[in-house]
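Exercise 4. Each item below gives a protein and its sequence. For each, produce the structure-token representation.

Item: Transcriptional regulator (Streptomonospora alba).
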Amino acid sequence: MRASRLVSLLLLLQNRGRMTAAELASALEVSERTIYRDAEALSGAGIPLYADRGAGGGYRLVDGYRTRLTGLTSGEAGSLFLSGLPDAAAQLGLGAEMAAADRKLLAALPEELRERAERVRARFHLDAPGWWRSPDETPHLSAVAAAVWDQHTVEISYRRWDGADVRRRLDPLGIVLKGGSWYFLALPHPGPGRSAPPAAPSPARPRTFRVSRIRELEVREEVFERPADFDLAACWAEWSREFEQSRHRLCTRVRLSRRGLELVHALSSPITAAGADGLRPGADGWCEAELYVESVAVATTEFAAYGPEIEVLEPAELRASLADYLSAAAARYRSG
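Answer:
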């Protein structure tokens, strides 16, 4: 642990130049006293490290000195794919590894490329969560990530979308970050109370779970065999497509004004809006469209946002629901 910290201290000074003990302590998450001891150890090992006394002083390396101690550990290498997502790396338990890998990569670059890399980092930032929402609370995320990496079976207590609590024994295959929410894909694992699969089972499909809905998690000693043909990106794309389609089963027939045709792409999902693609208003400024939505309840609040720019023709249940919804809103404002 100390050896890794000494290398990190050395790389910080190489990449940034003079730094105070307080700055080094903050970057390495240790005390200033630890920095004093580490600096003495580096000097004693022959590293040309100098301490400038007084205000504005600090530690620095002799001009021109560069270390070649830039080899990445396995954990640091594994964090590189998250180099643009520091918050995500921290949630996965890879924050320290990513910071160390970043220092080593900068140290290994020639000076002109290192300066360019620093400029890119200073000028571009990726913020994954959408507007007006906070990331999910995911206290079990790092444990799920470790189980994915080490191929350990997990047993979870999980709250489904309908509020029911269930227990599942799973073989976790991969983790996905989507719009600020974490998901993991897993295969069911035979456990107590479940029969073993038949001798020639049909291929099981991974299921998707939202990490924030895990109530309890136990990482078991069992090691599972990861399917050789599992493709995380392809599996997630297929599941996402099926999930979105499954949520839009209600076909509605509506009239849209010229303004309504513009609003459908701003206020509705792409699947709903696809029903209006290529349409043009008629002589009266309106056109008919078939729009697929999730349900009467969802469509009522969604179409209400269109105001007078939409008229629901079918189904009758949605037309009546929207009329009641808008009438109640109008009555509330008239009563004032």
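Check: The radius of gyration is 29 Å.
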